[in-house]
Amino acid sequence: MSFAAGALTPPVPDAASDEAITFELCRPIEVDARQVMAWRNDPVTLSMCFHRDPKEWDSFWPEYRDCYFQSEPEPVFARFQGCQVAFLRFCPETNPQGLSDRLVDISINLAPGWRGRGLGTAILRAASDYLLAAGIDTIHAEIRCGNAASLHAFTAAGYQALGEAQKLVIDTGETASIWRFVLNLVPPHQQRGLFLDLDGTLADSLAMLRRVYQDFLAHFGTSGSEAEFQSLNGPPLVDIVDFLRTAHGLGPTAADLLALYTGMIAQSYATAPPAAGARDLLVRARQRGWLVAVVTSAPRELARKWLEQAGLEPLVDVIVGGDEISLGKPDPEPYLLALSRTGCAASCSLAVEDSLNGAISAAAASLPVWLLATDMPQKLVENPQVLGPKLLGTLADLATLARRL
Fold first, then answer.
1. Which of 29, 245, 281, 361 is the most buried (most CB within 10 A)?
2. How far apart are the first and last CA of the chain?
3. What are the angstrom distances between the C-alpha of 133 and each of 42, 51, 146, 331, 367?
4. Domains observed in the chain
5. Tens-digit pLDDT profile for residues 105-140
6. How far is CA 251 from the centre of its chain?
């Protein structure tokens, strides 16, 4: 680990927390490469590197462009208070403890102007959440013995010291004294699970549900609003119908209204295709040994029939339907039931949701959340009830998530 610099001295920030750190993917373009090279060539950084000669642009640019993006997770910039403050690279390796898992070696260059403010530790802690959500089981690091700042940062971030060792730097012939560190993100023998909402997440069905909502109210000579429709994304159908009956003064009984609404949805579900990347996501999860659960507010049988007609049912291990629970989203009961049925550990699993209600439900069950929030106001995305990593994207990003598992 080393710390590197930009030309401007940033303002002194408040003590950093890992929640304040975000990550953005590096790009194989010159502007990003020049930033990385500038930080890499900082004198303090060079003194702690295994390769102490400054990088030259003519050789570094093709190295960065052609080598840095050959494996996943791809390198990232860490951001804090709107600034790029560090560069992180992850390289797949064999576990030094002899375990069989998905391990990466982490290296980090912190911008020199941000040194001495506790950012190294905060970034490493945030990176552990980021990598866990990316399907990484273990993080490894090798640090020169004289790099006191890095030794402190990794220790404070919860890494286990494996002791001193000697490292032969192949291309220079140097034998360097190093400390090795490891952080196990997934405890041994704990099952990982992928928990997915159905409507708007696994199924590209929100347009269909919006039509049903509008047609249902039109049937009674009234109309709703987009804000009302969005507020009903998450709760079980029985709660939705009860709300509409009260809000719009609908005459029939709650049971009759529920039967009508459910029937209209059942007739329309066949028009809802799987989200882009959905099959790749489920196949990749199965290949990696993850259990898959669909946690939906729709009735269980309705969800099962949609999965069957979409050809996805064989890739799903558990379905939790809205008709099987007492309290729907945002209560954690749906996800707690899914965790119980799968036997998965929440801390090393992942939930994918498209609604704030769903995200709060999953987070309250201690699940890290990937929130698909393209149509959601930022103030809702930043709701403090949504805990853990908030990985924002679109339905198409399910394919990206599949490559990270």
1. 361
2. 26
3. 32, 31, 32, 22, 10
4. 2-184 (3.40.630.30), 193-204+273-404 (3.40.50.1000), 206-270 (1.10.150)
5. 999 999 988 988 889 999 999 999 899 888 888 899
6. 44
